[in-house]
Q: What sequence folds into this?
């Protein structure tokens, strides 16, 4: 493959060299590749960059990892055919597309087990991205629901139709004006949680087999949603400082990667907690507009950013082009049990409305009416101030505890808001540690967290874990983090 003159990330350059070497040498299935350290030394780059290149090749099925052994050339049938040279990349949407749009690999048994366990009851809940019940206005909201049900029985007794309770759609649009994002109430569709909003958005802009670019790491539910929709993923690196790497995405597009849509959690990214600058958001919008690629934005954590001013969603920089489908909701910021979301469909609004009707027809209106009243009376804004103050303190306490109790060299993000921390364990004997065994050992002792491998494919992020900062800090929680750190000290090196 020929790269353009513009800079290409080092890990992609190494990945391409390795792929060339595999093809030119006609390496057989099972041929062992050089170790991570050997590659880093040979190509004068860091171990982490070399590992990123191997993981990039693994997620695309060109190589595979074997427990405690290293990386090996995958089966030809799994790798598929490779496009040759510039002609292959230029025609990626044709004959060369199979290299990129390969079917997503099946989950390994351990990943399936961990997904099934994640979210199950445990003595110490560090797994879910949610605040504890005491931090939400549950009592007030319950009283409001009862009053509305008594005063407006049609909210419960009448058949529900349409795209959402008009007063709620109007309030969502009004709220958006406060952070300079113009939404038309008529383009808003109220959904059963933000997950349904994302599902509708993906189905509105893509079909099975279409390649969807996602941040890497990314929310594991999104990965499973794409798997269910049979839409292969194209991971784009993301950092805790800047979010999605727009330059890497541009390089992929210039090389002919047939990306059909991009999904981002720009504000308080899950799991990194990043918030890109306005300039980066604007650059992302411009890049995708140039290539006529829709952007699906999950802004579920936007209201939980710690700054004095709420960051603008990427949609705010779309400037009436309608290329960004904005998804939001209230389950993280108001009450987890609400399962109340929404989507602003832009130029895809009519498709979204049709899909909503044939998917769940409508969303119950009683809760919508209650949220609309909280938004209109200022109750929501008052609650947010209290919630964000509590979360800021809890983030600080959890982060300090991880740095105090975990192995020396553990890296921990400093999120700009949201509900989670992302931690990376230091290497063991020159190899990444695995949080898979750590997850199982901790669960056996009643401590739950989200293992990093769920946020990518294969061995990607095997040495990472996501921790929930939504719990008020207590001595019991500190003891649980200390115990988790003790278990991490003994964590085996990565099986990959």
A:
């Amino acid at each position: 493959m020929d790269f353009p003159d513009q800079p290409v990330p080092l890990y992609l350059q190494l990945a391409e060299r390795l792929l060339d070497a595999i093809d030119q040498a006609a390496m057989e299935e099972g041929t062992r590749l050089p170790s991570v350290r050997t590659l880093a030394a040979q190509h004068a780059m860091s171990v982490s960059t070399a590992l990123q290149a191997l993981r990039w090749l693994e997620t695309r099925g060109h190589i595979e990892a074997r427990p405690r052994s290293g990386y090996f050339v995958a089966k030809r049938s799994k790798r598929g055919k490779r496009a040759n040279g510039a002609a292959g990349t230029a025609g990626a949407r044709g004959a060369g597309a199979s290299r990129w749009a390969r079917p997503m690999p099946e989950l390994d048994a351990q990943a399936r087990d961990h997904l099934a366990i994640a979210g199950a009851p445990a003595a110490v809940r560090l797994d879910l991205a949610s605040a504890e019940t005491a931090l939400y206005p549950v009592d007030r909201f319950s009283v409001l629901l009862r009053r509305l049900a008594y005063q407006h029985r049609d909210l419960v007794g009448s058949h529900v139709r349409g795209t959402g309770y008009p007063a709620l759609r109007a309030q969502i649009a009004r709220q958006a004006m406060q952070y300079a994002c113009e939404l038309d109430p008529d383009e808003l569709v109220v959904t059963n949680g933000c997950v349904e909003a994302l599902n509708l958005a993906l189905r509105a802009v893509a079909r099975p087999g279409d390649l969807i670019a996602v941040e890497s790491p990314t929310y594991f539910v999104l990965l499973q949603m794409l798997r269910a929709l049979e839409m292969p993923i194209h991971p784009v690196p993301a950092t805790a400082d800047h979010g999605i790497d727009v330059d890497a995405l541009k390089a992929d597009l210039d090389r002919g990667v047939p990306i059909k849509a991009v999904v981002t959690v720009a504000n308080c990214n899950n799991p990194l907690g990043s918030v890109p600058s306005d300039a980066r958001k604007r650059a992302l919008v411009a890049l995708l507009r140039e290539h006529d690629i829709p952007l699906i934005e999950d802004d579920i954590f936007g209201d939980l950013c710690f700054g004095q001013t709420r960051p603008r969603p990427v949609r705010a920089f779309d400037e009436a082009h309608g290329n960004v489908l904005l998804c939001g909701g209230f389950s993280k910021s108001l009450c987890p049990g609400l399962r109340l979301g929404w989507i602003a469909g832009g130029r895809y609004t009519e498709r979204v409305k049709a899909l909503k009707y044939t998917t769940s027809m409508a969303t119950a209106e009683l809760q919508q009416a209650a949220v609309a009243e909280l938004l209109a009376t200022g109750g929501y804004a008052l609650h947010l101030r209290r919630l964000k103050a509590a979360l800021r303190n809890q983030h600080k306490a959890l982060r300090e505890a991880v740095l105090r109790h975990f192995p020396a060299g553990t890296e921990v993000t400093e999120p700009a808001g949201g509900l989670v921390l992302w931690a990376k364990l230091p290497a063991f004997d020159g190899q990444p540690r695995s949080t898979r065994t750590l997850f199982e050992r901790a669960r056996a002792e009643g401590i739950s967290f989200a293992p990093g491998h769920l946020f990518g494919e294969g061995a990607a992020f095997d040495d990472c874990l996501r921790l929930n900062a939504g719990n008020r800090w207590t001595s019991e929680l500190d003891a649980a983090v200390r115990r988790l750190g003790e278990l991490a000290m003994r964590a085996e090196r990565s099986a990959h």
